[in-house]
Design brief:
The chain is mainly alpha-helical. It contains 21 helices and five strands.
């Protein structure tokens, strides 16, 4: 049994998975999980979010992730909080196992395989240029699982079993269409470079000019329609959509890996490392193609809505390969079997990433496990709301609550399980996939402008206009409000019904 665990890489992969999980941390309901977790909870309990489900439902229309997670919870009886934790760890294990398998096809050295896997384990939360994403997220994101499936598909192509890659890529497409599309593009390119005849032709083309494989089909018709009024202004805050406004170091982060893979391709050829040469060539050509597409889309006004498919996020796979191969080469040529070098390597790789994650979530535990009493004051308020308010309660928190000190980007809907007026941060990013929501979003965010100076009449206006009957405030509430909970500077209060006013709940 022990020899099998070592031979297949299961035991070391498991150890590196635990290390990677501890370094990256775990923060359910934070950042993008505000959308995904809320959507899963709505699947499990349709009575939730009667006022605002549109702000997460539209983003999930092309993914089976929320339905699959809800089905898993129903089938197994495992509570959602523990199911999410289980699948998050499983996604990390699968990603690292796929990385080890991929390295095994490219390197005969055990030190190379394990150093590459260890590097990815340490760098799971490495930012990907200016795209606004990491190699993997600190919560269960469908991109984590889709990445693992794509990486396993790559190993099947390297093993010259391309048909086995098809269902893996299909699974990735169902979980995260964009990640699946970029994965499919790379798998096609890799399969082509595995052919001697095609590789020679690509090689000659690359020497003369950039080559371009076939593009994937984008399944959303609205992408080709003119941007609706106000949509461009709403998207201005999302820097990753605007490629030609990136800083020089973000461009370096985008184009630098292409130069590195060009060097690796040229370096591997005279050394007779055919598998490494072909793999580097596939990464290079596919990246050149994707980069060219991104520049055309982001630089052409008529194609502006296409920028919402976030074409620069093709770099996610490129960065995984860059970290994996960089670590593998370091292991083969420097670490070898020197124990002290390995210790230094692991400390240097993991310690800064751990420190960065602690700085990113300073007011929250590094591992937000289910069942723990919340230490974050905002999460304490969310827990009270979840346990003590009716399911149809409709809250106002202000348009920028996610960026308030100590909030740490935890989504209200996902964790309090109650409806809320639109915010300017996370709900604003959802508009990229649902331009039709712009008027409603602008109305709700606009009605909350000057939030920190609101008086009783302003809150009553929100109730009259949108039907929001509750507030969560981080400043003293009006004296006339019925406040049910006060702690650490936060208050949860009912908004009085204005005399003679008729309230109405609207989107």
């Amino acid at each position: 049994m022990k020899s099998w665990l070592l031979r297949t890489g299961a035991l070391p992969v498991l150890l590196f998975s635990v290390t990677g999980f501890l370094v990256m941390g775990y923060h359910p309901g934070a950042e993008d999980d505000a959308v995904y977790l809320a959507s899963v909870k709505a699947r499990l309990d349709p009575a939730l979010f009667p006022h605002d489900a549109v702000f997460f439902a539209v983003q999930m229309r092309a993914s089976l992730f929320d339905r699959a997670m809800a089905g898993f919870v129903r089938a197994t009886g495992i509570p959602l909080a523990w199911s999410e934790l289980l699948w998050q760890f499983a996604a990390i294990v699968l990603m690292l196992w796929a990385c080890w398998s991929l390295a095994s096809h490219l390197f005969s050295s055990a030190a190379a395989r394990w150093a590459g896997t260890a590097a990815v384990s340490a760098m799971l939360t490495l930012p990907v240029a200016g795209t606004g994403i990491y190699l993997a997220d600190q919560y269960l994101h469908p991109r984590n699982l889709a990445s693992a499936l794509v990486l396993f598909a790559v190993t099947r192509i390297l093993a010259r079993r391309p048909l086995y890659a098809v269902p893996l890529v299909a699974g990735a497409l169902l979980l995260h269409p964009m990640m699946g599309t970029y994965g499919a593009s790379f798998c096609v390119m890799l399969a082509l470079t595995m052919s001697d005849r095609v590789r020679r032709k690509i090689d000659s083309l690359l020497r003369a000019r950039a080559a371009a494989p076939a593009a994937g089909v984008i399944p959303f018709g609205w992408l080709f329609r003119p941007a609706p009024p106000g949509w461009v202004e709403a998207m201005r805050a999302h820097h990753w959509f605007w490629l030609f406004q990136w800083t020089w170091y973000e461009w370096l982060g985008a184009l630098g890996p292409l130069a590195l893979f060009w060097f690796l391709w040229r370096w591997a050829r005279p050394r007779g490392e055919q598998a490494l040469e072909r793999f580097a060539l596939a990464v290079l050509v596919n990246a050149v193609f994707q980069q060219a597409v991104a520049m055309v889309v982001c630089g052409t006004p008529r194609l502006l809505t296409l920028a919402t498919v976030e074409p620069m996020r093709y770099l996610n796979l490129v960065y995984v390969f860059m970290v994996l191969l960089g670590g593998a080469l370091l292991g083969r040529h420097l670490l070898t079997r020197k124990a002290l070098r390995w210790v230094v390597f692991l400390v240097v790789a993991n310690a800064p990433m751990f420190a960065a994650q602690r700085a990113l979530f300073p007011a929250s535990p590094h591992l937000e496990f289910p069942g723990r009493t919340p230490q974050n004051r905002w999460l304490q308020a969310f827990a009270w709301i979840r346990q003590n308010t009716p399911k149809d309660a409709y809250f106002a928190l202000g348009p920028d609550y996610l960026t308030q000190p100590g909030e740490d980007m935890h989504g209200f809907r996902a964790l309090a399980e109650r409806s809320a007026l639109a915010d300017a941060v996370k709900d604003g990013s959802v508009l990229s996939k649902a331009p039709g929501l712009v008027p409603g979003w602008r109305a709700q965010v606009g009605a909350q402008e000057g939030w920190e100076h609101f008086q009783a009449a302003d809150f009553e206006r929100l109730r009259t206009q949108f039907g929001a009957g509750w507030v969560l405030l981080d400043f003293p509430p009006p004296a006339s409000f019925d406040c049910r909970w006060r702690q650490n500077g936060l208050s949860i209060c009912r908004i009085p019904v204005p005399p003679g006013a008729l309230t109405e709940s609207r989107q």
